[in-house]
Amino acid sequence: MRPGPRPALLTREPNNPILCAADWPYPIHTVFNPAATRLRDGTTLLLCRVEDHRGHSHLCAARSANGVDHWVIDAEPTMSARPDEFPEELWGIEDPRITWVSELNKYAVTYTAFSKGGPGVALALTEDFRSFERLGLVMQPDDKDAALLPHRIDGHWALIHRPMHESGAHVWISYSPDLRNWGGHKLVLLARKGAWWDANKVGLSPPLIETERGWLMIYHGVRHTAAGSLYRLGLALLDREHPNVCILRGDEWVFGPEATYEREGDVGYVVFPCGYTVEDDGDTLHLYYGAADSCVAMARGSIKAMLEWLDACGSDPR
Ligand code: BMA
Description:
CATH superfamily: Glycosyl hydrolase domain, family 43
Radius of gyration: 18 Å
Number of strands: 22
Number of helices: 2
CATH architecture: 5 Propeller
Largest sheet: 6 strands, antiparallel
CATH class: Mainly Beta
Mean pLDDT: 97
Bound molecules: beta-D-mannopyranose
Shape: globular
Order of helices and strands: EEEEEEEEEEEEEEEEEEHEEEHE
Strand content: over 45%
Distance between the termini: 20 Å
CATH topology: Tachylectin-2, Chain A
Low-confidence stretches: none
Number of domains: 1
């Protein structure tokens, strides 16, 4: 055990929550679990999951110069479910993640498409967050928490995702030559067992963060209790050339629901990030997360400090 107080690797923005339903230009029930990216001009774009009064979700973009306030929200849904052409979207589209793919000069948006067959992973490409080219379901149900890596690994695209299995919900990676056909499936991160905070169910939170040391993964772990589920965040590091290999994993969670807006809402005790941006210093992370499935909040962290924490407190799970 390491002596001293737990380091605060993520610090909440004092003005949290930064976005809520009352901010929306049209009637909505809740807004949460946003994807994030910085556009070429430095603007922060959040692609938020918005739940309507049927309980169905769509995606809506909010833009801000500083990534904290003065959000300009699209006047209408930015990306709505289109169940007529894509039946897998019958009950809505949820929890997007954005990856800038320089080879394609496009953003890849992975999201959960929800329908009678369960939640599956869908992929769309966009240049401007106004029109979207759908590639359809890339991972069949039950599967979610997916993000594309920003470039090919050994000639193949790579997708992190989280299929469900009776042995637990673990993080996997799959490879594709063309973004349509996927194979080479490999297990990346196992949910632990028993009393652990990340027992039985883990999943990728925002897309992987590429560093010189490897791919930094912020993942969520779910603890089932008599009162419900507790969603917390942990850290792992994946090998740079072989992202299926986890080289370091922390034992302790680094962020969990503490603030009132994280503990009270439609689904209390949930922090659920789907996106981050990196400031101009190349190190300061803005982590955007849904709080209690009800609003959007932000926390700041340092990539360097997270890697140092993994060096000090993590271990090689192999
Ligand atoms: C997960 C996802 C998230 C949600 C979380 C807590 O399974 O569906 O969208 O925030 O549960 O309800």
